[in-house]
Design goal:
409 residues, disordered N terminus, Structural Genomics Hypothetical 15.5 Kd Protein In mrcA-pckA Intergenic Region, Chain A, Rossmann fold, 5-stranded mixed sheet, single chain, 6-stranded mixed sheet, alpha/beta, 42% helix
Length: 409
C-alpha cells in the first residue's frame, strides 16, 4: 500500500509575505552560534531567493520547563523568523511516549500521557519569550500519528534499513556494553524524520546531539519523493557545572522560569571558561565587549545582567544585579525573601525543604544537603535525616541563591 502525503492541508499562499534577503544578515545567521549546516550552499541560496521557508524545531515534552540550553536554538529560530520565514514549533507529544535515545546509554523510561500533558502546558508560553508566537506555527505530532494505523508503520519502516538506524553512535556504544535497545527506540528517529514529511519542512534545526535524527528527516523525505530539508545544528550548552550538557535531570540547568535574581546568580556561578560561549550563544553581544572587561567576575556580571534583561527587561536586570551584590558582595540580608508559614515546632529537614518550595523534590533536597549547600540560621547542615526545630524569622539558604524565611503561625 502506497501512502501519499497531502500537502494541501498545510500549504498556504505567501505571495504577500516580505522576505528579507540581506546577505549580511544571512551570513550572520549561518555563521554565529552554528556548529554545522547541511547543505550550506543550498540553504544560503534558498534564503537569498526570497521564498518563505518552512523551518522546524521539534522538542519532546520530557520536562515541565525550558532552560537556557533550549534558547540557543530558539534564538536561532528567531533570527530566521525576523527575516520573514515561517517557524514551526513542533511539540512531540506522541514521540515523547517513546523517548529520544540520543546520547543515552540505557533505555529511557516511557512517559505517561498525564506526564506529557503536564509538561506540554507551559512550553508555548516559555517559547514566546523568544519567538513571536503569533507568527509561529505550533504543531503536535499526535495530530497525524493518532490517525495512523499499523499498516502505515509497516510501510514507513520498510523505507529505512535496520543497518542505517543501528549505525548511530549511541546504539553502537550500547551494543558494545551489552545494553538493551528496544524496538521503539529504533523507530524513534524514523518517526521524527516523518514529521518533516507531514510538515513539508525546508529546514530543520537542532543541537549537535540531534544530527542523526535530523539527517533521518532528509532520508525519509527522499523516500517520499520530497525535497530534502537542509539542516542547521547548534552547539550544546554546558550547564553551571561547566562539564555536562545543561539538563534538568543533572541539576546543572538555568530555567527560563527562574526568578531574575536567581537567574543572575546562577550565571555568576558558571566557570570562567564558559563566559564567551554563553555570551555568543545566549546574547547578541560581541566577544570584544566581554574580552575588554579586565576580570572574569566583572565579565560575568555584564553577561548575567544582559541575559536577565533579555527575559525580564532593564528594570528587573538592575534590581537583580543590586540584590546579588548586596547579598554576595556586601553580605547583606536579601530583600523580599519568600516566607513559609507553619505551625509545626519540629520539621523533618527533607519535608521542610520540599514543602517550602526550596527543593523540587526530596531527592533534590538530599542532593543539596549532601553537597554542603544548605544553611539554616547561618549554620551548614549536612545530615539529611535531621529534624529542624522551627524558630520564628529563621532564614534558610538553599544552594547558592535560594532563601526563605520561616514564620510561625
Amino acid at each position: 500500500m502506497k501512502f501519499v502525503v497531502k500537502i494541501s492541508t498545510i500549504s498556504k499562499c505567501y505571495a504577500n509575505i516580505m522576505i528579507n534577503t540581506d546577505s549580511k544578515k544571512i551570513d550572520e545567521i549561518l555563521g554565529r552560534g552554528v556548529a554545522e549546516i547541511i547543505e550550506k550552499e543550498s540553504l544560503k541560496n534558498k534564503l537569498l531567493s526570497g521564498k518563505q521557508l518552512r523551518i522546524k524545531f521539534g522538542i519532546d515534552p520530557t520536562a515541565p520547563d525550558l532552560h537556557l540550553g533550549h534558547t540557543v536554538v530558539l534564538r536561532k529560530l528567531k533570527q530566521f523568523q525576523d527575516l520573514g520565514h515561517k517557524i514551526i514549533f513542533l511539540i512531540g507529544d506522541f514521540t515523547a511516549t517513546i523517548g529520544d535515545p540520543s546520547g543515552r546509554m540505557s533505555q529511557r523510561q516511557q512517559l505517561s500521557k498525564k506526564e506529557i500533558k503536564k509538561n506540554m502546558k507551559d512550553y508555548t508560553k516559555q517559547a514566546s519569550k523568544i519567538l513571536d508566537i503569533k507568527k509561529t506555527e505550533i504543531r503536535y505530532n499526535s495530530e497525524w500519528y493518532k490517525k495512523k494505523k499499523a499498516i502505515f508503520l509497516m510501510e514507513l519502516s520498510s523505507k529505512i534499513t535496520y543497518a542505517r538506524v543501528i549505525e548511530r553512535d549511541d546504539f553502537q556504544k550500547r551494543i558494545k556494553e551489552n545494553s538493551d535497545i528496544n524496538m521503539l527506540e529504533l523507530l524513534y528517529p524514523i518517526l521524527q524524520g516523518y514529521d518533516s514529511v507531514e510538515l513539508m519542512c525546508d529546514v530543520e534545526l537542532g543541537g549537535t546531539d540531534q544530527k542523526f535524527n535530523l539527517l533521518m528527516g532528509r532520508k525519509v523525505q527522499k523516500r517520499y519523493d520530497l525535497p530534502e530539508q537542509d539542516i542547521v545544528t547548534v552547539p550544546l550548552l554546558e550547564g553551571t557545572d561547566g562539564v555536562k550538557k545543561m539538563s534538568k535531570s543533572i541539576g546543572n540547568y538555568i530555567s527560563l522560569n527562574e526568578l531574575p535574581v536567581e537567574m543572575y546568580g546562577k550565571i555568576m556561578a558558571i566557570p570562567d571558561g564558559l563566559i564567551l560561549k554563553y555570551a555568543e550563544l545566549l546574547t547578541g553581544m560581541n566577544n570584544e565587549e566581554i574580552i575588554n572587561i579586565p576580570n572574569p567576575r566583572d565579565q560575568k556580571a555584564v553577561l548575567a545582567k544582559e541575559i536577565v534583561r533579555i527575559y525580564y527587561g532593564e528594570k528587573e536586570a538592575q534590581k537583580a544585579e543590586k540584590e546579588f551584590n548586596a547579598v554576595f558582595r556586601d553580605k547583606e540580608k536579601p530583600t523580599d525573601i519568600p516566607v513559609f508559614s507553619t505551625n509545626r515546632e519540629v520539621y523533618p529537614i527533607l519535608d521542610l525543604l520540599y514543602d517550602s518550595g526550596l527543593a523540587e523534590s526530596k531527592n533534590d533536597a538530599k542532593r543539596v544537603i549532601q553537597g554542603g549547600g544548605l544553611k539554616i540560621a547561618g549554620d551548614t547542615i549536612t545530615d539529611w535525616r535531621k529534624e529542624i526545630k522551627i524558630k520564628h524569622n529563621m532564614i534558610i539558604k538553599f544552594g547558592k541563591h535560594k532563601f526563605i524565611e520561616i514564620k510561625i503561625i
